[in-house]
Design goal:
The protein is an alpha+beta fold and 973 residues long.
Length: 973
């Protein structure tokens, strides 16, 4: 497209050079910049041009242009705004997507720039209206629609404007009322509260009362009576009538037009394909609610303006819904446009160069304009961020059939490509212990064991009341967090599981399982000693790459090979991994280009191999989608019925507790599940993530093996919250979305939630159980024999000792403070467990005499189990799956406050008694104004015995203080 100086309006010079919004208002047929202080303020009699510039992770700038037309703007102003939008696109290099926005029918993307809403004001410039002057407050009534963004429209202040389907906001001088139609959803009510907050801050300086009125709640409520009194008293509401604004275009057939001499002419075609679009022409794709104008790269500015005019005539036709006009340039089509075609190539043959943008930049330089932003910026160099604490505790299980087998610490980062694994990682968060439970699937693993791994991991998550973040990783697509957790990660060929061995026998395949005395080649990769991997590859020369280092061994003969593109750091990783694969053996270093004959003989001869370094893909800007599905349908069978809608410019407030959301980061997929989502949908969250990848909504051809995380509301890990400005108090609030936001609107801020005390996680042969001297916590004393813990009563220690889990790390040991590169493990003994009755008997025996008042009793400690035997790859340690483990695990998770005195139980007689259901933390009607640390003391004796299986006579014979003491020790909810 030819660009001349006359095509560039001076107001657009220098536009789009940095990320953010820029707005112009059309005044006397010229764009005039709007002050930033007036952004979001629109007048019904004006037309505006809005430019949104986004800085991508790659360093490039993306532009989107909207022209907004007020309902009272003139046709001349509207036409001028449309033309100026095309000119602005030309000034930016001809790549921007352009949207036509009509007041009351704006796109969700446009409204997302001005959250929570825009409320156009009366007046205008060129239209002849006068801007409304500040005057006394006027009572106004607004109707609010939308679950993701809110469309706000002022309606007449009359009862006839109300209905049962929508949300209405009545703004009076002293109070703002929100009327919730009985047929409206919780999400719509919650979003409308954001409008209430906006009106409160904008028109009342944040100082006015707020009231929520429920449709159907009559005069018995004072605020409801006050609301209806403003309308002259209560009366039944009329049914909502269908209007032109409610028309939809679902039944509108898609039609393609070619623009010739300013006229739209139909294109005859059986199906829509990319081949129908000529780079020398402009086209109109009429989809009903969306009308796309496609402009070929070789079309002139006048041709594009003519095509835009033809689209304007089309949308003004009779019996049409309010349509959005979206203009796209060849080579930069939106996902929505491409999805309308049955076939669209992944890459086009269009030569997209910097010529157009470069010519514009040269023209602007002559005028002394800084044009740095018009050219593609260099991608920023960023080191990968961890976003996860690396001092946590790791446990790994190997999946064999329907069982999981615990790996010893020396083997927990050594995986086989034909097997599946489950890992649990617990680490300290900001205010509580964080958990990550995941599955890893080898490339050669069988489907039966993959399904078994997912089922076993899901049960682990469910047993922890969905507190952990659940992940699903595939070999070759692991995220950085996985490698950081594993630290030194090795993948061997073959497998040890029954499923893998059965598969190779049935298919008559050779067993490639790694043998220490055999021939093996490992590719070494990673960024440092805390993130290094050795991946076994085919022992042939074509597996080499000049950008990597390799380890080659044949029994005791060991070679190391360094490519010409490797660094000293890469070569240092080889030495570290050698200590894990083939320790204490002499190696023969090989430099690329000077290899020995013996080296090539082991690889079967010298052949060609790659010699390029693969750059790490820059992280893409994330996209957030809300997920809905047909009610009453099983998630596993609705395949094509998964409906997702993108939420633009998202924030934490867009995450509704009743819904499921998907955060697509290209390299990772997060499925966020709200607390109010039903239990069946929670269990199918992983399936929803898999369906999302299959559907490929962004047409990016994402791998079906992309890592998927399942994140439960209230337990969001830092590698998820980093994409938001996160307020943990909001995610910890109780109630549905509407109730939460109503509390914030009324009180001004989110209520402060008591932070739970951090609990040391249960460890199964994980990282260091006994910290080194430099890593000791101040809350413990150290001796060679045992770890002494403060703040625990003898009753607790006696009970914990009897329920000791043979696979559990002593909870008295805190996580190490300083990162250990090569962590050692303490594997507890696997002795016989005491029965539950014996444990209770031992516990009650410790209560023979009540302690005297104010007596200080030193807590006993639980001994740390000795370190288990070291194992080798290929040997698995079976996990003892005793039923008593669940009991001991729950007891070990308790934290008894230091200031609980032994004699306090005597003072608890005479306390009120409540049902068990009201004393649990997840109760829908929890008891308030009680000592929450002693909830069990408010149980009746009968309910207590039922919950913990004690004999009636044994319990009743105990003194009252001993009964309460036992309740305290068995505090399990």
């Amino acid at each position: 497209m030819a660009v001349s100086m006359r095509d560039l309006d001076p107001a657009f010079q220098g536009a789009g050079q940095k990320a953010g919004l820029e707005i112009w208002r059309i005044e006397n047929f010229h764009p005039v910049p709007v002050p930033k202080s007036s952004y979001g303020k629109f007048f019904v009699g004006d037309s505006y041009v809005v430019l949104k510039t986004t800085s991508l992770k790659s360093g490039a700038l993306r532009h989107e242009i909207h022209y907004w037309l007020g309902k009272d703007t003139s046709q001349d102003e509207a036409g001028c705004a449309a033309i100026k939008t095309i000119e602005l696109d030309a000034a930016l290099g001809g790549r921007a997507v352009q949207y036509r926005e009509v007041q009351g029918h704006e796109t969700e993307k446009f409204l997302s720039y001005f959250k929570p809403c825009i409320i156009p004001q009366e007046g205008g410039v060129a239209s002849g209206f006068k801007h409304a002057e500040a005057e006394e407050h006027q009572t106004r009534l607004f109707v609010c629609k939308g679950k993701r963004v809110v469309h706000v429209k002022e309606v007449p202040f009359a009862r006839s404007s109300l209905n049962h389907d929508d949300i209405f906001v009545l703004d009076t001088e002293s109070k703002i009322f929100q009327f919730n139609g009985s047929n409206s959803s919780i999400q719509e009510r919650a979003k409308a509260l954001e409008v209430v907050q906006y009106i409160k801050d904008t028109y009342h300086d944040g100082k006015c009362e707020v009231a929520a009125i429920e449709d159907g709640k009559l005069m018995a409520d004072a605020e409801t009576g006050e609301f209806w009194g403003l309308f002259g008293g209560f009366a039944p509401l009329p049914r909502k009538t269908s209007t032109d604004e409610d028309k939809i275009a679902d039944s509108h057939s898609t039609k393609l037009f070619r623009v010739e001499k300013g006229q739209a002419k139909p294109v005859d075609a059986d199906s829509l394909t990319r081949e129908l679009l000529d780079t020398n022409k402009c086209y109109i794709l009429d989809c009903g609610l969306e009308v796309f104008v496609w402009m070929g790269r070789n079309t002139s500015l006048d041709e594009r303006k003519a095509a835009s005019g033809a689209a304007e005539e089309l949308v003004h036709g009779a019996n049409r819904p309010k349509s959005h006009i979206i203009r796209v340039i060849e080579g930069f089509e939106t996902v929505m446009f491409r999805s309308k075609f049955e076939s669209w190539p992944q890459t086009t043959d269009v030569a997209v160069s910097e010529d157009g943008r470069g010519k514009v930049a040269a023209l602007l330089r002559r005028q002394g304009v800084n044009v740095k932003g018009l050219l593609k910026a260099a991608p920023p160099k960023e080191e990968p961020q961890l976003y996860i604490d690396v001092t946590g505790h790791l446990q790994v299980w190997h999946v064999d059939g329907q069982e999981k087998i615990l790996l010893q610490a020396s083997d927990q980062s050594k995986f086989y490509s034909g097997d599946c694994y489950i890992f649990q990682y617990s680490y300290p968060g900001d205010d509580k212990e964080e958990y990550l439970i995941g599955t890893w699937f080898g490339k050669k693993s069988v489907e039966e064991e993959r399904a078994s791994a997912i089922s076993l991991a899901s049960k682990m998550v469910e047993s922890l009341k969905f507190l952990p973040c659940q992940a699903c990783f595939y070999e070759g697509n692991e995220p950085i967090q996985f490698f950081i957790i594993m630290q030194s990660f090795i993948v061997f060929k073959g497998g040890l599981s029954t499923g893998y061995k059965t598969c190779i026998v049935e298919k008559e395949l050779p067993d490639e399982t790694y043998r220490e005395d055999g021939l093996a080649l490992f590719r070494v990769q990673g960024s440092g000693p805390d993130n290094m991997q050795a991946i076994q590859v085919e022992p042939v020369a074509s597996s080499l790459n000049s950008a990597h280092c390799y380890i080659l061994h044949n029994d005791s003969t060991i070679f190391t090979w360094s490519g010409n593109l490797t660094t000293n750091d890469d070569q240092e990783l080889v030495e570290r991994l050698l200590d894990l694969i083939k320790p204490n053996l002499q190696t023969k270093p090989q430099k690329e280009g000077s290899e020995s004959e013996q080296f090539w003989e082991l690889l079967g001869g010298k052949t060609e191999y790659p010699s390029q370094k693969v750059a790490r893909e820059a992280e893409r800007d994330p996209h957030l989608f809300s997920c809905t599905f047909l009610k009453g349908r099983e998630i596993a069978v609705f395949a094509g019925n998964l409906k997702v809608v993108e939420i633009y410019n998202f924030t934490q407030d867009d995450l509704m507790t009743e819904d499921i959301f998907i955060l697509d980061c290209h390299s990772d997929i997060f499925v966020w599940v709200g607390q109010q989502v039903d239990s069946k949908s929670k269990t199918h969250a992983l399936t929803i993530g898999e369906k999302f990848l299959e559907s490929d909504f962004l047409l990016e051809k994402l791998s079906h093996e992309t890592p998927i995380y399942i994140v439960m509301e209230g337990n969001e890990p830092p590698f998820f919250t980093r994409f938001f400005e996160w307020d943990s108090a909001k995610s910890a609030m109780h109630g549905n979305s509407f109730q939460r936001k109503l509390a914030i609107v009324k009180h001004g801020v989110a209520p402060i939630v008591d932070k739970p005390k951090r609990r040391t996680p249960v460890s199964y042969g994980g990282r260091s159980s006994v910290p080194e001297k430099s890593q000791r916590s101040r809350s413990m004393s150290f001796s060679p024999d045992r770890v002494r813990v403060r703040g625990r009563s003898p009753a607790f220690n006696a009970l914990a000792a009897n329920f000791e889990n043979p696979n559990a790390r002593n909870l008295s040991t805190p996580p190490p403070v300083v990162r250990k590169i090569y962590p050692r493990s303490v594997t507890p003994d696997s002795g016989k467990l005491a029965s539950k009755s014996a444990a209770i008997e031992a516990l009650t025996a410790s209560f023979e005499q009540p302690p005297p008042a104010r007596q200080v009793i030193m807590p006993r400690s639980v001994k740390v189990s000795p370190e288990g035997p070291k194992s080798t790859p290929g040997k698995l340690t079976p996990e003892s799956n005793n039923k008593e483990n669940s009991m001991s695990t729950r007891i070990e998770s308790l934290t008894i406050q230091e200031d609980v005195k032994e004699g306090e139980a005597e003072d608890e007689e005479g306390l009120p008694i409540f049902p068990y259901e009201r004393l649990t933390t997840n109760s829908t009607d929890p008891v308030t104004e009680i000592d929450v640390t002693k909830r069990e003391t408010y149980l009746s004796a009968t309910e207590f015995r039922e919950k913990f299986g004690m004999a009636k006579d044994a319990f009743n014979k105990m003194p009252k203080w001993k009964q309460n003491k036992l309740k305290m020790a068995l505090h399990l909810f």
